[in-house]
Design goal:
Mean pLDDT: 93
Low-confidence stretches: 1-22
Order of helices and strands: HHHHHHHHHEEHHH
Strand order of the largest sheet: 1-2
Strand content: under 5%
Distance between the termini: 53 Å
Bound molecules: benzoyl coenzyme A
Structural class: mainly alpha
Oligomer: single chain
Shape: globular
Helix content: 55-70%
Largest sheet: 2 strands, antiparallel
Number of helices: 12
Length: about 350
């Protein structure tokens, strides 16, 4: 059900060369362009929308950026559900701001992908038809208020770990979008941690609620970084192109190393009996991740896949009148400006 299938041509001559293949140079002129592109990547330079780029580079970026944008948009759903149930006016205001931020992140990212020649409508069609991927983490239910804190602390924490290196991505518009996204994600992470600190200072029942949320989310957050390096078909080429700066396993390890001390301060136990400091490696060792479950979820069979997509499609359909009104207003303004200029 879930495969990325965007109608981005493979190259101008119509040759098929996926991101996993090495694009064949069609002509001497193209070979020269390819050499200039490679040199810029080797010098850690930026590629901008009007620059020549290999078709496979373009395709990989559209795949990754749209996946990222969809994650932000679908990520609004589990949180949006809790706005009416947040325990105080302060928590509601924070959650509303956070959900708005996620919507904004999705829009910056769709705009970045549009600079590669794929329209937002095409990307949304990929999402709504179930063809496009979005982060596995949003296909799990949010059962109690502590889940909102844990999403901030661990889900946004994992997202930041993955996204800070994307600020140095070789594609300029993606890198620039990520600078602002990361600033906002950092606020999201802190507010989640602070909400959990408050709960941990509350009643026994509140502390148990936090531990329960951590137990349910920990392993799912580790899977957010993607499959192990040996099973990650896109990593090697993504790193060669300076899109990804670290492998999935490296980022996962960084996240674990950063999170263990935070869990200690919070007073929760991370649900992994094999989690222990390895002096020799200078990292925490951890237990095995359930990759079968991960692929089940990525392939559309997680506990909330159907509901998330249905809610998203419904929201899109119910928002049609807003888009039509905005387009009509913009057309009216344009006509007025033309009249005034005449
Ligand atoms: N979920 O070769 P690989 C957030 C797919 S949330 C679903 O390693 P790549 C937020 C992958 O797309 C964070 N699918 O791929 C927080 C590929 O499939 P296709 C969102 C996954 O691209 C709170 C296949 O598995 N952030 O921001 O080199 C509230 C093989 O993987 C997942 C991003 O998305 C997954 N967890 O690396 C609201 C960051 N992992 O495309 C919002 C941008 C892997 O070949 N994305 N797959 O059919 C990335 O950095 C990279 O795309 C990944 C995967 C690290 C996710």
């Amino acid at each position: 059900m879930y495969t990325q299938s965007f109608s981005v041509p493979d190259d101008t001559a119509g040759n098929t060369s996926g991101p996993k293949g090495v694009p064949a140079a069609a002509s001497a002129a193209e070979a020269e362009l390819q050499a200039a592109f490679d040199a810029r990547i080797d010098q850690d330079g930026r590629i901008e929308p009007r620059d020549w780029m290999p078709a496979a580079y373009r395709k990989t970026l559209v795949r990754q950026i749209s996946q990222h944008a969809h994650s932000e948009i679908v990520g609004m759903l589990p949180e949006g559900n809790w706005i009416s149930r947040a325990p105080s006016l302060k928590r509601k205001a924070i959650l509303i701001a956070k959900v708005q931020d996620e919507g904004g992140h999705g829009l910056y990212l769709y705009s970045a992908a549009e600079t590669l020649g794929t329209s937002r409508a095409e990307m949304l069609e990929g999402l709504h038809s179930g063809k496009a991927k979005y982060s596995s983490i949003f296909n799990y239910p949010t059962l109690n208020w502590a889940d909102m804190g844990v999403i901030g602390w661990l889900v946004d924490g994992a997202a930041i770990m993955n996204q800070i290196p994307l600020c140095r991505c070789s594609y300029g518009p993606y890198a620039r979008a990520m600078v602002r996204v990361c600033k906002e994600e950092s606020f999201h992470q802190r507010q989640g941690y602070e909400a959990l600190l408050v709960l941990m200072q509350g009643t026994q029942a509140q502390r148990e609620m936090v531990q329960d949320a951590v137990n349910r989310y920990w392993w799912k957050c580790l899977a957010m970084f993607g499959p192990p390096d040996a099973d990650s078909p896109n990593s090697q080429q993504g790193m060669r192109w300076g899109i990804k700066r670290f492998t999935n396993d490296d980022l996962r390890q960084k996240f674990i190393d950063a999170t263990v001390p935070q869990a200690r301060v919070l007073g929760v136990t991370l649900p992994d009996p094999e989690l222990k400091w390895n002096e020799e490696r200078g990292h925490y060792d951890h237990g095995p991740i359930d990759w079968d479950e991960f692929w089940q979820v990525v392939n559309g069979h997680g506990p909330m896949n159907k509901e998330r997509l249905a809610t998203r499609v419904k929201a899109h359909e119910q928002g049609a009148w807003v888009r039509e009104a905005a387009a009509a207003h913009a057309a009216k303004q344009q006509q007025r400006q033309l009249k005034e200029a005449a």
